[in-house]
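Tokens as discussed.
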């Protein structure tokens, strides 16, 4: 049932309407139409049906605004033909005069700008990338919404409570497959390859006739249809290559545009399971004439409420843009006020303000003169010497009867003595002064000054092509000759804004940085190059009220002199002098304050023999010494005494405390502090392992190899206190063992050194999930052994049963009783 609401708010139900039809399309118009004959039942409401009134579809609660009413008489009965579009289209009358700032925007920022204050709300279901927009606004909300669809590539659904749902793609996947001319019959079928292209190139914003970014894209369908070039794509709002490439992919039509029109009853016959088709539903389709697979979608539905007529469904590969979908609607509105026969506006459809303006212009004809050879003269009726001359050469304003025209517009430009304006909007005006080599350009928020300059820097003089620019919130100093830039912003000073991954990205001076502290600080940063502090004639001082930290991700800090440019002073010195020492060769690296009894830490002192002696101290005295030879470390050369651990490196043969070989490395019990005699090696909290490898010390899967472990006894912790859910084993151990595949192989570490004869046998973890670790990277030996033990138990039981059976058989054979 339909309900009419007039502009005054009066509501009436409409009765006796005929031919009600509702249309809806993906990202397109949603409308309804019907015929309303005048009857005794609806006589009052019939007269109220006019343009701009609302029609509410009570079955869906969606509202439509009447845009066309055509009245005619059929068999002496007045009949109105009514066409109405969804109230969402009323947003075409809401204009956004302001614009968003240029830059990267989220989809929420764009939709907030469009729908703010309109009474419409929205929700975004899927994730969308942030995109760059330039001067978004200055248009009606429908046009802006269309731009958002084109940029983000989303689809939308309308709810009856003035809510818009945004998705990557609406509809569901149908549980059937079409094969054209096999299981579906159509009454209208179209295949169009006129727009088919497989290659496209494009460019973004153009500055000084040079695009900031370019891209090209070739569709995989080029393997089927060959290279077919599409019209190049341009977009002045794009300045980043990934954004341009995504736009090219959306622009390219790389498959035939297939459209199939059929009734829903045919869909049901083909296996469609839903009670009714859903807008955007996807149906995989094999289109054999071209040998391709398509995803046909329900792009448009027209149904007929109140009748038994099956809905008409249009399946297509082409997603119609929002702008294309409203073209028919716009044309219908245009026909209301434009007479195509005369080529003029229909006067009776103009609003009152337009009518008054038209009449005023008509009345102004009395002020226009058409002198021979003089064009058109608009003369001030109060001062005949003041007039405006319109001629083919241009437009001029005079106050002396045409002797001079100090204010004029000609093909050579604009000449004026005074330009008065409250505001010059450079979003619409481009100011350019100079030539292509030396100029200043102002365009919207963009300012650029370019010239060739000779400059001296650190004793070197060069002549380069330089540009200074206000761009994207930066003050940018650009050297076109050397292809490098420096950016100044509220963040700091940087070369990274357009040079990430480039050798020109030399560094950043970041203000208000919190990388190393919660307090706002200053950071000097470089990814590829060296961060250097240099003073040729004086000192470099690091002065802090707290600590001065020297940190390195590689856990190494190098101190070394400069290259040999200052003979005689290339030594390196680092010391913290002990209070009791008078020699600069003596010092101590301390934990705590140094004192005469040695601070806790490492003390170094030159001996009478000239060797440096290392003291490991605890603040109470000498705890041991160790000597560092100039060439290598010898046996016992680094030791600690009296502590809780000992580490020995036997580098020259022989050894102590368990070291018997020339290269043994020994960690004694207590090497990690414990309260007893046990030695603990800690691993990660979940999946850590203790790994014994070659000297590389870690496992990257290719460069290291594992080494054996020798011990008198191996213990696997198996206390009931460490387990839960203890229950009998239900599977047979023999079944598991029999499924294992014993393989023969050579280890990579043998192959790497050319040894192809050291064959091994064993199981492979990836092929043995029953006894492997959860990630299948290794064999769980404990599980493997227990499956073997279970198999032995099963074999033992079988052996015992067989032995009893053999004994019984022997008694029978010998005549005894079993």
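Sequence:
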């Amino acid at each position: 049932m339909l309900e009419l609401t007039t502009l005054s708010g009066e509501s009436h139900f409409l009765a006796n309407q005929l031919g009600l039809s509702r249309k809806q399309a993906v990202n397109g118009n949603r409308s309804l139409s019907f015929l309303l004959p005048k009857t005794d039942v609806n006589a009052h409401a019939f007269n109220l049906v006019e343009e701009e009134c609302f029609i509410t579809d009570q079955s869906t609660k969606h509202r439509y605004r009447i845009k066309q009413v055509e009245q005619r008489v059929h068999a002496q009965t007045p009949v109105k033909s009514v066409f109405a579009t969804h109230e969402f289209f009323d947003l075409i009358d809401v204009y956004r005069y302001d614009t968003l700032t240029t830059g990267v925007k989220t989809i929420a920022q764009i939709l907030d700008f469009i729908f703010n204050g309109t009474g419409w709300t929205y929700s975004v279901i899927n994730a969308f990338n942030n995109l760059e927009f330039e001067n978004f606004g200055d248009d009606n909300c429908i046009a802006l919404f269309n731009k958002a669809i084109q940029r983000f590539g989303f689809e939308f659904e309308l709810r009856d409570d003035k809510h818009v749902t945004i998705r990557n793609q609406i509809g569901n996947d149908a549980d059937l497959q079409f094969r054209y001319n096999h299981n579906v019959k159509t009454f209208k079928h179209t295949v169009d390859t006129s727009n088919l292209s497989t290659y496209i190139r494009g460019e973004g914003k153009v500055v000084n006739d040079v695009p900031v970014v370019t891209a090209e894209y070739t569709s995989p369908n080029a393997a089927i249809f060959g290279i077919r070039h599409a019209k190049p794509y341009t977009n002045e709002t794009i300045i980043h290559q990934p954004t341009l490439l995504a736009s090219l992919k959306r622009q390219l039509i790389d498959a035939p545009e297939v459209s199939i029109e059929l009734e829903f009853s045919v869909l049901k016959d083909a296996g469609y399971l839903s009670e009714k088709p859903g807008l955007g539903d996807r149906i995989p389709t094999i289109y054999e004439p071209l040998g391709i697979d398509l995803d046909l979608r329900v792009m448009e539905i027209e149904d007929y409420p109140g009748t038994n007529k099956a809905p008409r469904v249009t399946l297509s590969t082409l997603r119609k843009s929002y702008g294309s979908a409203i073209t028919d609607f716009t044309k219908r509105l245009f026909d209301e006020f434009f007479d195509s026969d005369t080529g003029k506006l229909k006067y009776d459809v103009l609003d009152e303000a337009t009518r008054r303006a038209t009449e005023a212009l008509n009345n102004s004809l009395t002020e226009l003169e058409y002198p021979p050879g003089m064009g058109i003269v608009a003369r001030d009726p109060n001062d005949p010497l003041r007039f405006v001359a319109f001629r083919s050469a241009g437009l001029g304003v005079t106050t002396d009867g045409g002797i001079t025209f100090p204010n004029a517009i000609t093909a050579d430009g604009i000449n004026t003595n005074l330009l008065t304006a409250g505001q010059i909007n450079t979003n619409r005006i481009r100011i350019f002064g100079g030539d292509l080599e030396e100029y200043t350009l102002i365009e919207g928020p963009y300012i650029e000054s370019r010239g060739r300059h000779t400059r001296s820097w650190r004793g070197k003089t060069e002549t380069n092509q330089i540009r200074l620019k206000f761009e994207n919130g930066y003050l940018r100093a650009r050297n076109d000759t050397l292809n490098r830039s420096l950016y100044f912003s509220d963040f700091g000073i940087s070369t990274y804004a357009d040079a990430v991954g480039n050798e020109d990205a030399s560094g950043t001076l970041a203000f208000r940085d919190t990388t190393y502290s919660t307090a706002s600080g200053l950071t000097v940063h470089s990814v590829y190059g060296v961060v250097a502090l240099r003073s040729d004639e004086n000192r470099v001082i690091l002065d802090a009220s707290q600590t001065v930290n020297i940190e390195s991700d590689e856990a190494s800090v190098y101190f070394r002199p400069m290259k040999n440019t200052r003979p005689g002073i290339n030594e390196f010195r680092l010391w913290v002098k002990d209070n009791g020492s008078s020699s600069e060769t003596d010092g101590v690296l301390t934990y705590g304050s140094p004192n005469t009894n040695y601070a806790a830490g490492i003390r170094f002192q030159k001996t009478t023999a000239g060797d440096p002696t290392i003291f490991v101290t605890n603040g109470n005295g000498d705890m041991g010494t160790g000597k560092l030879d100039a060439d290598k470390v010898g046996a016992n050369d680094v030791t600690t005494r009296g502590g809780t651990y000992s580490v020995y490196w036997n580098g020259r043969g022989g050894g102590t405390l368990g070291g018997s070989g020339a290269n043994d490395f020994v960690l004694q019990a207590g090497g990690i502090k414990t309260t007893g005699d046990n030695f603990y090696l800690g691993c990660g909290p979940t999946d850590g392992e203790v790994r014994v490898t070659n000297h590389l010390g870690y496992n990257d899967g290719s460069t290291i190899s594992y080494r054996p472990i020798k011990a008198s006894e191996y213990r696997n912790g198996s206390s009931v206190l460490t387990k839960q859910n203890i229950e009998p084993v239900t599977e047979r151990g023999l079944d598991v063992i029999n499924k294992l595949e014993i393989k023969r192989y050579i280890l990579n570490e043998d192959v790497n050194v050319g040894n192809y004869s050291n064959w091994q046998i064993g199981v492979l973890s990836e092929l043995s999930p029953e006894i492997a670790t959860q990630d299948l990277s290794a064999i769980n030996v404990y599980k493997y052994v227990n499956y073997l033990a279970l198999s032995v138990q099963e074999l033992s039981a079988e052996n015992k049963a067989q032995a009893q059976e053999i004994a019984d058989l022997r008694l029978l054979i010998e005549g005894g009783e079993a």
